[in-house]
Structures are given as C-alpha cells and as structure tokens.
C-alpha cells in the first residue's frame, strides 16, 4: 500500500500489467481487488454499483487491474488478515509482546476479513455469474477496536492508544470509511469479523 506511493510504476506493472498477462491466457480469472478503490466519503456500506474514486496509487492501479478482466470474477474485499504473512493481526500480536501500549488509528472504519472465510466464499462465487462482487466480513469496526478485540481474545494486557490517520503519517491516503456489502443476488455471506478473528487465532 505505502510502497506503491514510492514506486507507482512498479505498482502498475504488478496490478495492471500482471493482470493483463494472466487474462491473456484466455481462461476465466478470479481477480482480488480492494475496498481502496473507493474514496471513503460515503457513510453507509459500498455496493458494487457505487462510483469508485481511489485516493492512492495502490487503489488506482487495483481499479485499473479490474478493467483488464473480461471473463471472470472481480472480488473486492477489505482489511484482509490471516495466520501467515504480514497483516494487522500478526503485527499487533508482535507489538504487544514488545510493549505495554500500542498506538492505533481510530478514524478509519472497515470490515476486517479473514482470508480463510474469503477463500471459502470464492469457491461459491465460481458457480455465480462473472462480474464485480463485494465479499467482506459482516460487521464493522475501527483499527483501534480491532486491536482491542485481538488482545481481548488472546488475553493480552496491552493498552490501545487511539490516534488519527494524520498522526500515523503514512504515505498512502486511506479512505475513512470502506465497509463493503453486496447488492447482488446470491452473493456468499461471510461470518462476522470477530468470528474470523477467532478462526485465525486458532491457527496461530
């Protein structure tokens, strides 16, 4: 996300050029996109027909990548986390092991989505028509609320100090609100983000 701001050409190469190369193979494609294709000005969940307006290089190149898909499923999801790789859950657990307090943004609202639940829903999508699908966890929270839930679930005594996006000072601009819901018939529902968190923690 932030690296894309420093290397827009690299982001375009991966998100647009890479997608174009996959599409050129002539088979149906599952393309994972992001809530960051929206500008966050809406105050109710974004649905598939809402106009896009990315604020960052990452969001813009992911949206351009969507435009490369002809036959396939464009799956927009949000705030992904899982038991492997670099993600918010693993980062919070690491920081809680190093300090008594963490500073976390409290003015962004989204739906943290467990990748295991997203994978299961993707299998269901393969029986549904091509096009854009919003597939994200039920419920919504801020990053600070998500951090508190992580510590609560594992019994860690780590305080969360709420800060603003401006205080965090990241290079890439994030939408203040990016909750996703589907307006399409048959869209696979995902469990609440809190259930996803518990499922993830069981695998750590």
Q: Mind sketching the topology for me?
A:
Elements: H1 2-6, H2 8-23, E1 29-34, H3 57-66, E2 72-77, E3 80-81, H4 88-96, E4 101-105, E5 109-110, E6 113-114, H5 115-125, E7 131-134, E8 141-142, H6 143-154, E9 159-163, H7 165-168, H8 193-202
Parallel strand pairs: 1-2, 2-7, 3-6, 4-9
Antiparallel strand pairs: 5-8
List the defining traits of the structure above.
204 residues; alpha/beta; Rossmann fold; 8 helices
Describe what you observe in this structure.
With 204 residues, the chain is an alpha/beta fold. It has one domain (2-202): Rossmann fold (3-Layer(aba) Sandwich), CATH 3.40.50. The protein is 38% helix and 17% strand. The protein has eight helices and nine strands. The chain has helices at residues 2-6, 8-23, 57-66, 88-96, 115-125, 143-154, 165-168, 193-202, and strands at 29-34, 72-77, 80-81, 101-105, 109-110, 113-114, 131-134, 141-142, 159-163. The strands form four sheets. The chain has a three-stranded parallel beta sheet with strand order 1-2-7, sandwiched between helices. Helix 2 (8-23) packs parallel to helix 3 (57-66) and helix 6 crosses helix 8 (193-202). The longest helix is centred in the N-terminal third of the chain and has 16 residues, at 8-23.
What's the short story on this structure?
The protein is α/β, with parallel strands linked by helices.
């Amino acid at each position: 996300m932030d690296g894309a701001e420093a290397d827009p050409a690299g982001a375009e190469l991966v998100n647009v050029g890479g997608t174009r190369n996959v599409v050129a193979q002539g088979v149906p494609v599952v393309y994972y996109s992001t809530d960051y294709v929206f500008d966050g000005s809406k105050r109710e969940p974004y649905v598939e027909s809402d106009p896009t307006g990315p604020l960052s290089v990452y969001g813009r190149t992911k949206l351009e990548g969507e435009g490369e898909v002809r036959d396939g499923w464009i799956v927009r999801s949000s705030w992904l986390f899982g038991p492997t790789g670099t993600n918010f859950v693993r980062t919070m657990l690491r920081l809680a092991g190093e300090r008594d307090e963490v500073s976390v943004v409290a003015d962004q609202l989204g739906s943290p989505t467990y990748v295991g639940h997203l994978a299961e829903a993707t299998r269901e999508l393969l029986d549904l028509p091509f096009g854009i699908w919003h597939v994200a966890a039920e419920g919504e929270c801020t990053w600070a609320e998500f951090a508190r839930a992580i510590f609560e679930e594992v019994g860690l005594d780590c305080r969360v100090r709420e800060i603003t996006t401006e205080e965090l000072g990241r290079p890439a601009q994030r939408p203040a609100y990016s909750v996703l819901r589907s307006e399409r018939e048959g869209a696979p529902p995902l469990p609440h983000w809190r259930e996803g968190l518990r499922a993830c923690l069981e695998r750590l």
